[in-house]
Amino acid sequence: NAGVTQTPKFRVLKTGQSMTLLCAQDMNHEYMYWYRQDPGMGLRLIHYSVGEGTTAKGEVPDGYNVSRLKKQNFLLGLESAAPSQTSVYFCASTSGRAVYGYTFGSGTRLTVV
Amino acid sequence: RKEVEQDPGPFNVPEGATVAFNCTYSNSASQSFFWYRQDCRKEPKLLMSVYSSGNEDGRFTAQLNRASQYISLLIRDSKLSDSATYLCVATLSNTGNQFYFGTGTSLTVIP
To answer: What was the pLDDT predicted at B31?
Structure first.
């Protein structure tokens, strides 16, 4: 049982390049989330999804797009990367019952130069 | 104002010490609360849920005070392995089960 898997684990992009981060969960969770974590800022929600085919904006959605075509996958896209998007990105999922908490992926370290 | 606020520390304590972290949340409608632990360059992992009646898990005790809107985490008999960042979390069930994280409190246990 892998839980939540994020790919890639590391990536260096040049300004203006695009990329997609993949999050996959095998726990049949309804809810999935993308967070970014920066020093002193804590975890900030980018986008989230409450079920297959649905997405919603979080606290810091600008510059990112997401898709949830399959229940188990949640994709985060950067269309034109900027240095301000240098961060650690975490995907998380939950069954929808808050009492169970989140399960996080191991993170993607992205550097935009 | 942030939804969840906590003292960033750092807290540096000797092995065997008792240490307490507090966290406040701004929305009185918050329904569920958690403490997460995050090791350096790793993902956050659920440490324990926080219940109104208070709950204990070994050396860890969590308390919730809804009237004052704060939660606490007490660690007794600190171990070197307790060194990590502790994140306080509150949820609002009407926002897609969205969790609000504090910025974390850094703990270092010194031999």
So the answer is: 84
